[in-house]
C-alpha cells in the first residue's frame, strides 16, 4: 500500500514538473517575444509559482477593451475574444496596442452586428491558430485580412455571416489549414480550384450559400469530408469533379443542388465512401456511374429524387445485392414506391 502511494505520488510529481518544464521550454519557442523581466516564467515545480506574471502574457486589458484576452497557464494557451467590438476602426486600433506575445491560440468573434468588413492587415502581425468568426454580419473578408495567420491557422470558421466576398485565391498561403468552413453565407460563386493543392486540408464545408461551384476539386490528398449541400452545382456533375487523391475521403455531401445526372468517374473511388445526393433531380442511378462506389463498400443516400425505377436500376437487384448500399429505406421512386420494397422479379425481363 505504502509503495503504491509512493508510486502515485511520483507519477503526480513527475507529471506536474513535466508540465512546468514543458511550459518553461515552450514559451520562448511558441511566442516571438520572450521578455524575462516582463514575464516571470516558471522556474521550478513549486505550485505557487504558477501565478508569477502569467497575466502579463496578455496585453493590458484596458488597451484592448472590449476585446478580452485570457491566458490558460496550465496549457500555455492565450485566447482573445473580440465579440463586443463596436466598429472596423476599433478592431484595427486594438491590434495596434502593445502585445507582448503575438501568437494566440484562438480568436473568437461571435454574434457581432457592428462590423461588415474584416479589413486587410487588421491583425497587425498578431496570429491565431483557430479563427472562430461565426454568427456575425460580416459581408466582406478583404484580401490579407488574415495574412498574419498564414503559417499558423489550422481552423477557419466563418459560418453564418453574410459574406458575399472572400479572397479564395489566398487560401493557398495557409500552410497548416485543417478545417475550412464558410457555410451559410451569401456567396454567389465558389471557385473549386482555390482549394486545389491544400495538402493539409481535412474538412471543407461550403454548405448553403446557393453558390455556383466553379471548376473541379483536385489534389487534396488529406481531405476526409467535403460539404457542398444547398448550392448550385452543375446540373450534370462531370467526370473528375472530385478527383483529389485522398485515401481518407469518407463523405461527399451534394444534397439540395438541382443535380440531374452524375457522369461516370465524377469522384475518386475510395473504399467506404459515403455520397449524399438526396433532394436533387436525379431520375436514374446509372450503373456505369454508381456501381464502382457501391462495389467498394460505399454508400449512396438517394431519397427525394424522382427515380424512374425501370430497367435502369435492375443492376441494384442482382446477386451482389448492391441495393443494400443504397442507404435510407425511405428512398422512393417517382411514383412513391419505396425502392427497397420493389419486387426483384419485376427486373427479370430487363
Ligand atoms: C521588457 O519589459 C520591460 C518592462 O515592460 C521593458 O522595460 C523592457 O524594455 C523590455 N525589454 C525588451 C527587450 O523588450
Ligand atoms: C465572448 O465575449 C462575449 C461578450 O463580449 C461573450 O458574450 C461570449 O460568451 C464570449 N465567448 C467566449 C467563447 O468566450
Ligand atoms: C448568439 O446569440 C444568440 C441569441 O442572442 C444566442 O442564443 C447564442 O448562444 C449566441 N452565440 C454565441 C456563440 O455567442
Ligand atoms: C509583420 O512582420 C513582418 C515580418 O516579421 C514585418 O516585415 C512587418 O513589418 C510586420 N508588419 C507590421 C505591421 O508590424
Automatic annotation (TrEMBL):
InterPro entries associated with the record: Leu-rich_rpt (IPR001611), LRR_dom_sf (IPR032675)
Pfam families given in the database record: LRR_8
Domain of life (superkingdom): Eukaryota
Cleaved signal peptide residues: 1-18
SUPFAM superfamilies reported for this sequence: L domain-like
UniProt KW keywords: Leucine-rich repeat, Repeat, Signal
PANTHER family, A to Z: IG(IMMUNOGLOBULIN) AND LRR(LEUCINE RICH REPEAT) DOMAINS, LEUCINE RICH REPEAT CONTAINING 53
Protein's UniProt name: Oplophorus-luciferin 2-monooxygenase non-catalytic subunit
Organism: Meganyctiphanes norvegica
Organism phylogeny: Eukaryota, Metazoa, Ecdysozoa, Arthropoda, Crustacea
Amino acid at each position: 500500500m505504502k509503495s503504491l502511494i509512493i508510486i502515485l505520488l511520483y507519477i503526480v510529481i513527475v507529471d506536474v514538473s513535466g508540465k512546468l518544464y514543458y511550459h518553461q521550454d515552450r514559451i520562448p519557442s511558441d511566442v516571438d517575444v520572450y521578455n524575462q523581466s516582463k514575464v516571470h516564467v516558471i522556474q521550478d515545480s513549486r505550485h505557487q509559482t504558477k501565478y508569477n506574471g502569467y497575466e502579463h502574457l496578455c496585453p493590458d486589458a484596458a488597451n484592448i477593451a472590449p476585446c478580452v484576452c485570457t491566458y490558460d497557464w496550465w496549457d500555455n494557451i492565450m485566447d482573445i475574444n473580440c465579440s463586443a467590438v463596436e466598429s472596423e476602426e476599433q478592431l484595427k486600433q486594438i491590434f495596434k496596442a502593445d502585445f507582448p506575445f503575438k501568437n494566440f491560440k484562438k480568436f473568437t468573434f461571435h454574434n457581432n452586428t457592428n462590423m461588415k468588413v474584416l479589413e486587410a492587415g487588421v491583425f497587425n502581425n498578431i496570429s491565431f491558430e483557430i479563427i472562430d468568426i461565426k454568427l456575425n454580419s460580416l459581408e466582406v473578408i478583404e484580401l490579407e485580412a488574415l495574412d498574419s495567420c498564414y503559417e499558423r491557422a489550422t481552423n477557419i470558421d466563418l459560418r453564418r455571416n453574410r459574406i458575399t466576398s472572400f479572397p479564395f485565391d489566398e487560401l493557398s498561403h495557409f500552410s497548416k489549414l485543417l478545417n475550412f468552413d464558410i457555410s451559410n453565407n451569401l456567396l454567389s460563386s465558389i471557385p473549386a480550384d482555390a482549394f486545389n493543392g491544400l495538402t493539409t486540408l481535412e474538412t471543407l464545408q461550403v454548405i448553403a450559400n446557393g453558390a455556383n461551384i466553379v471548376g473541379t476539386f483536385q489534389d487534396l490528398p488529406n481531405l476526409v469530408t467535403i460539404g457542398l449541400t444547398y448550392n448550385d452545382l452543375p446540373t450534370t456533375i462531370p467526370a473528375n469533379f472530385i478527383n483529389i487523391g485522398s485515401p481518407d475521403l469518407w463523405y461527399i455531401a451534394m444534397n439540395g443542388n438541382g443535380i440531374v445526372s452524375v457522369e461516370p468517374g465524377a469522384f475518386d473511388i475510395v473504399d467506404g465512401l459515403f455520397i449524399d445526393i438526396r433532394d436533387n433531380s436525379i431520375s436514374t442511378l446509372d450503373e456505369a456511374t454508381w456501381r464502382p462506389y457501391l462495389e467498394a463498400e460505399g454508400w449512396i443516400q438517394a431519397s427525394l429524387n424522382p427515380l424512374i425505377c425501370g430497367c435502369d436500376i435492375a443492376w441494384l437487384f442482382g446477386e451482389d445485392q448492391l441495393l443494400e448500399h443504397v442507404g435510407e429505406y425511405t428512398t422512393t421512386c417517382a411514383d412513391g414506391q419505396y425502392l427497397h420494397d420493389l419486387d426483384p422479379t419485376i427486373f427479370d425481363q430487363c
